[in-house]
Amino acid sequence: MRRYLIAIIGLAAVAGAAFWLLTEPSLLPPPDVPEKAPDLANGEYMFFAGGCASCHAAPGAKGEAKLRLTGGLEMKTHFGTFNVPNISPDREAGIGGWTNADFVAAMTRGVSPDGRHYYPAFPYTSYQRMTAADLIDLKGFIDSLPPVATAVADHDLRFPFSIRRGLGLWKLVYLDGMEFTPDPALNAEQNRGAYLATGPGHCIECHSPRDPFGGLDRGRAFAGGPAAEGDGWVPNLTPDPTGLADWSAREIASSLKDGFLPDFDSFGGAMVAVQENTARLTDADRAAIAAFLKSLRPIANAPAPKPAASDGG
Amino acid sequence: MTFRAAILGFAALSAAATMAVASDDPIKTRKAMMKSVGDSMKVVVPMVKGEVDYDAMKAEQAIRVIQDVATNVVNYFPAGSETGGETEAAPKIWEDMAGFKASAASLEADAGAAATAAAGGLDAFRAAFGKMAGNCKACHEDYRIKKN
Questions:
Q1: How near does any CA of chain A get to the CA of B2, in Å?
Q2: Tens place of pLDDT for every residue, chain A, 313 residues?
Q3: A313 and B26: CB-CB below 8 Å?
Q4: Which of A29, A91, A256, B105 has its CA 20 to 30 A from that of B49?
Q5: Cis omega before residue A184 (within 30°)?
Q6: Which domains does chain A have, with CATH numbers?
Q7: What's the CA angle centered on A308, arms A306 and A309, to 5 degrees?
Q8: From the candidates B87, B132, B136, which should be mutated to test the interface with A, based on the most A CB atoms within 10 A?
């Protein structure tokens, strides 16, 4: 009996040690960060392409207030509540004082300067695709914004998701650390769209199904699925009849510009903030996103039919 | 002028009739009302985009339907109609009815201004229409949840 107990304790210790080693944030290969002065105009463009303000500005902020990256938005998911952090260039409350290497490590490895894992509610699984040049430009632009000293509470998550270290295992499965590489089967316009939609624009994050561990189902990317927050449905963007088969590339690009769908309905929910960002892209980039979406393999995915309403009212 | 008044009167009447017929089912009624907004947009947007010739009367008529919906639609979200009937109404409507009504009032005012601007020619109309159209997504951002 005693021998079994020792064996169990021994196994637990080995498992614990393995967990500790496998989840060590510094084990992720450091990103390549070239020396370069930031191009602030491109940084601003990436800021809007990336939708940073949609989550990191104060909830409900409009216009200039969107450039105050005070954080504080509560994302209520079934893992718990994520409190979006302050990423203004404030040295205490925000990310002021970060080096380019710190910023690139956060965006592509999901690791903080003090060596902790970030939760993937921060979509580094997409931002890892960004070029180092775009990332450095983006950091330069964020550094030019007003510092805000607002402190934001830590996330409030359910066990076991509350164990930050566990994200090391999650990353072994879901984070490949690969920068975007053009698909030789696509033309230059479609590849630009692919970069925007799977990299900075992170369209893929909301518009793809996820598995029970919160990982993207990349085999069914862009096929839509249940919203991470609330009980809504995020539309299927593939050219399937359950997706955007009926939309022309022009209609897709147009909706990203003015917020109206081909049937004259309007965007709603989180897509309103997204469209305020895509409205700032060039016509060529909106067309590129549309061309990329049209190049996707059609995947059938629609919400399961609801049980009949009890009283129709 | 009489003809124009008759058309506008007819449009208002038919909108009112829609509401009267379906008023025992608030979800169906409000969905029909939102559909009529979409139908109006189908008339107006091609004019604003220059895809069809501008017709001041048709534009005003379409916008008056939207204005009418903005005035009345808030009455079709009674307690007990939060779910069912494939509603896409967000719970926030009932948590913040005052904010929801303020959104509708903003649309009502901007639609009124656009309807009035219609007679002033396409450029005047386009500006007022743009302001009105911003209400769609502003309200849908907070108060609608897409379910399909």
A1: 31
A2: 678 888 888 888 888 888 887 888 877 777 788 889 999 999 999 999 999 999 999 998 988 999 999 999 999 998 999 999 999 999 999 999 999 999 999 999 999 999 999 999 999 999 999 999 999 999 999 999 999 999 999 999 999 999 999 999 999 999 999 999 999 999 999 999 999 999 999 999 999 999 988 999 999 999 999 998 878 899 999 999 999 999 999 999 999 999 999 988 999 999 999 999 999 999 999 999 999 999 999 999 998 765 544 443 3
A3: yes
A4: B105
A5: no
A6: 21-174 (no CATH), 188-295 (1.10.760)
A7: 100
A8: B136
